């Protein structure tokens, strides 16, 4: 298996997202692109990353290749990448090594790094397919601000919809917090076919999802009565990262 990431900035962004998913990630490479799906140990969070083939060049793979790699190892290589570098990847299954070559486009100088990988097969984790009664889109910065407020109030947040408004409500010791969103104030998009409805989620599960906000300007949120909430970030038209978080019961 071989592929190239022609822009070192894209390589760095990919690694930044992967490091926020888990310490070790399973990667699947096909001619359609790269996917990574991780279920947390307590089964409360499912994270799915998809990067389209448009981000890569010179992809050589038979069917699909699946392997696990430590994100720390990838991050150490990404730190060494300069602005002029092209990142070339090659999987050596026999020796369980992912070779990363950073080739300077101007000078032709190549620096090579060998990263150990695991090839142990595991059952592939599927996505969660749900029909959501409420979906809204908002600037990631606005959503991040609400989550920052929630973190200092309580452990849980009730997200509800009624009469064209999304409400976030949390209670702590001697404190109550409420925030409202509606179309154009500041919602970019809102669709609902059921009301009223609400569901409760853990703030400490929602907050980490915003670590990838720098890779996307907008977050798409879908939820319903006592079902996993979905948060989806578009990575500049070249992929998506999606989170599903279990509700509090």
Structure overview:
The chain has 249 residues and is α+β, with helices and mostly antiparallel strands. The chain has 2 domains: 2-118, DNA Polymerase III, Chain A, domain 2 (Roll); 134-245, DNA Polymerase III, Chain A, domain 2, CATH 3.10.150.10. Helices cover 16% and strands 49% of the residues. The strands form 2 sheets. Strands 5-1-7-8-9-6-2-3-4-19-18-17-10-15 form a 14-stranded antiparallel sheet. A hairpin with a 4-residue loop joins strand 7 (85-92) and strand 8 (97-104). The mean pLDDT is 92.
In total, the number of strands is 19
Distance between the termini: 45 Å
Helical amount: 10-25%
**Radius of gyration using CA atoms only:** 20 Å
Q: What is the CATH C-level name of the largest domain?
A: Alpha Beta
What proportion strand? over 45%
Widest sheet, order of strands: 5-1-7-8-9-6-2-3-4-19-18-17-10-15
Total separate domains: 2
Shape annotation = elongated
Largest sheet: 14 strands, antiparallel
Uncertain residue segments:
none
What is the H level of CATH, i.e. the homologous superfamily of the largest domain? DNA Polymerase III, subunit A, domain 2
Provide mean pLDDT, rounded. 92
